[in-house]
Amino acid sequence: MYYFSGYKEPHSVLLIFKDQQTDSPGNNYSEILFVQKRNPQAEQWTGKRLGAEGARENWASACPSMVKIFKNFNIDFTRFDKIIFDRFPVDIPDGRDKADLFDLVQQFKQKAGIPEDYSKDKRFDNRSYRDMTAKLREIKTPEEKILSVKQWRYPARVRMK
Known about the structure:
- Helix content is 34%, strand content 15%.
- It is α/β, with parallel strands linked by helices.
- The chain is globular.
C-alpha cells in the first residue's frame, strides 16, 4: 500500500479505481483510503496512529474513512471487469477487533464475490498487481538511494565459528 499511497499504517484498505466514481451525496473520487480509528489505549503498545482526521490532513487526495465502516461501505464490485489485488496472506490471526486485517480481508472477499479458488476467474487478477508493484520498486526515492549505498558500503558482517 505504501507504494500507491505513501500511507504506512497497517490494517488499512486502499481502493483505487480506473474511472471516477461518485458517492450518494455526489462527491467524485478515484480512490478511497479506509484507516483504523485512533485508540490511545492500544497506541501505547502498537504506536501512534493518524486515524481518519490525520489521514485526511496527510493524504488529502482521497476520502479517508474509518476501517470500521468498510464492512458497511456500499460498493458494487460486479460493475468492474477486473479486480486487481495482491495475494491474500494465509496466516492472519483473527483478533478481537472487527476491523483488523483478518476481518478486512474477509470483508473484501465477500464484497467482491471472490471465491476460494479465484485463479479460474479472469476477473480477479493478482499477476497485474505484482507486475505494477515490481515496476514501482524500480523507482527509488533519494532516501532509498542513500540506504542502498550505505548497505553496499557497510555490509553486515557475519561471524563464523
